Each structure stands twice: as C-alpha cells, then as structure tokens.
Amino acid sequence: MPWGERLSDTAWRWATELRIVAFPWVVARILTVAALVAAEVVIDELSSGPDPVQLRDGLLGWDADWYKGIAGDGYGGVGEVGLRFWPLFPLLGRGLSWVLAGNVALALLIIANVSAAVFMVLLRRLVLRETGDEALAMRAVWLSAIWPMAFVLVMGYAEALFLALAVGFFLCIRSRRWLPALALGILAGLTRPFAIFLVIPAAVEVWRVWKESKARERLLGALAVLSSGIGIGVYLLWVQIAFSDMFLPLTLQSDPTRQGSARDPVSSLLDSAGQLVERDPVIDGLHALWGVFLIALLVIMFRRLPLSYGLYSAATLLLALSTSNLDSLERYAMGAFPFFIATAMVTREQWAERTAVSIASAALAIYALLAFTGIYTP
What we know:
The chain is 74% helix and 0% strand. The protein contains 17 helices and no strands. Helix 1 runs parallel beside helix 6, helix 9 (199-209) runs antiparallel to helix 10 and helix 12 crosses helix 14.
C-alpha cells in the first residue's frame, strides 16, 4: 500500500475510534468540572476562612501544581523536592507552551486530556485483541473513564500520559513489535517511576516466544524488556550530574510526609482498616477497602487474562501497599490498567454493568470534590 494511502487509513481509523470513546471521555470531564463547581459552592457556604489552595488551583492543584512549576521554571525553579516528579510530562508541557503564548497550564491540561483519549482508544484496541468482545472493550473504556480516581486524568497530572504509553507498550509486546515497544518503554520510564514494572510483562512475553525467535528479534525483545529501566536510568543519571545524588527522586518520595518508609503491605492494610472504626474513615480507612477490592481483582486477572497482565498489576499494587502512608494508593494502583479490564469482566450482566457505572460515577464526583476541597490526597 502506498505511504499516502496508509497514512490516510491510519488517520481515518483514529478518527473513528476517537468518536467511539468520545462519550465516556466527555462524561468524565463533566463530572470532574461539576465536582470543582460543587466544591466552590460548598466552601463558600460552609467556610468563613480563605479558600483551600487546592480549590484555588482547580485542575492544576496538588501534583499538577508541581508539574506546572517544573514546566515553567525547570527543576531549579521548584527546588530539589520537585525531582520526585519525572520529566517527560512537564517537558512536553514546556514544548507545547511555546505555541500557546507561554501558557504552561493550558499546555499541561491539553496534553493530559489528549493523552486520556489516546489511552482509551488503545485500551479498547487491546481488549479487542485479547478477547474479540466489543461489549467488554467498551465496558473497560467506560470504567477507565469514570474510575473514582480518574478525575486526575482531567487534571494536569502525568497519569494519562503514562497510561497511554503503558497500554501502547502492552499492545506492542503482545504482538511482538519490539522496536516500538522499546521506544514506548523508554518514554514510560521518563514519565513515572512505576514504569519499572513494565519490565515484568515484557520479560514474560519475550520468554513466551524466545525459542521460535531469530537472533534479531531476541535482541530487540531483550531491549524492550530493559526499555523502561533505560528511561528511568536516563533521568536518574541526569539527576546525578545536576544534583550529585541520583537517588534523590526516590529518597524524597520516601519522606514521612509523603509515602513514608517501606513497610509490609499486610500491616499497612490492617492499620488502614483500623481507621474505619477509630477515626477519619474517609481519608484513611477507605484505603483498606480499596486494597481488598484490588486484591480480589488480581485473582480474577490471574485466572482470566494472560500472565503478563496479572504480574504487572500485582507488582504495582504490592509497591503501592508497601508504604507507611497509603495516601494516593488508589491513584498509584490505577496506573495498572488491567484493573479496568478485570472489573469489566465481572460486570458482564446488564444489572452489574449499570450498578458499576453508577457507583463509579458517583465515587468519581465525590473523590474529586474531596480533592478540590483539600480533604483527600489524590
């Protein structure tokens, strides 16, 4: 096929698939903006003091404010503590801002929301590839759009970009396209530290086809396995050159005011569960319920999806649970996109699907409201 026709076919396919996922994409943004407006009303009615900084920042609140600072002024402008935010997302925001009259905030929001749409298209493709079930694929897309933490995919967070890269990576390794997998893995490693777990599914897929592969494919497959580590290593090497301590991004994140030191996940879950009966269940106790729910989804994943999906999600969840502070547990776990697929698999019945969509939509609005009022840490 001539190059021009191939490009035209690709553009037409993308346009078609973007239209398919447009409705859940729009619904998620309506719910998030509605939560922001509701937060403003609640604070105006119930608070006599100054507005929470998270409400003033809106879609650029919490971690998004750090990304905005890095994109606008570099790591030097935000100080060493900003090194815990990986560089690709703010670099892209800085680049796009050049054509937006220097508006870094708008650039980050555009990248995040476009990435979310790309992620949903790729997720649908991946589920169709694995199952051939259109209804299941669309259910997974809907759940990814209205997952209770999915409001961060509307904000200036790196999650949407990482999810798009991770799903693209899975599509490539499952179809033995090692060269694009190598590129996507490196980019993912420059986006989020959790990208290191992409090593696991890549290794599983390379091993699965190793005996029937020729030397060139084995080499490219091995490089794809290492790709996310290469991306992470590039960033840490730059930190070493610029700040003389390559482990700063990791040690800063383990500060007690953030994720805290490493801890066994069982103790973390038990302590969180204790908060349900002792104090402040909204902030702390619900982490335990989420942990149990995600573990149950893992069991389904190992039973009904290829091994690479379960191992990737298990590693991500294990690290998210292995901290003394479970704040942001739900967001970190959301980086393991197979949880969306597993949830879609257990909601095949119409009543189950409607119940899941209703609960998820309400939870998204509530969690977003709590985040914009400064109560919940996304």
